[in-house]
Amino acid sequence: PRNNGVLNGKFIEFNQGEFLMNSSAYGMSDTAWIYVPKSCSDGAICKLHITYHGCQQSHEKIGDKYIKNTGYNRWADTNNIIILYPQTVATNAMDSTSTDRESIPNVNGCWDWVGWYGSDFDVKSGKQSSAMKKMMDRITSGF
Fold this sequence. Notes:
By secondary structure, this protein is of the alpha+beta class. It is about 25% helix and about 15% strand.
């Protein structure tokens, strides 16, 4: 079941730039959030769920609306799940894998699903992927 009342956990803002040098050059904000249910803060064994916002849904574009209103936190509260809300930023980076000179920049702050920030965008060595892995490791080791 989900918590339909007042959330009992807390939102923690942290520096996601720590996990990727020059993060904005790779479409990632310096700031991200996690939602930590009280049970997790009190020592319960908790799982981790990462939620990737859509294009134009980053904190830069809509504030905390996605973070606080998508419903993930209500499920997390009653199921011992920490929610990670990584954040992007809009950039003028062009698709580096495209041979099309008409490629458009990432002005909508999308996650890199086309190669804006390198041809390894879809594998573990990609800039955003490797930053996410580092965040996962930190959070699951007791943040």
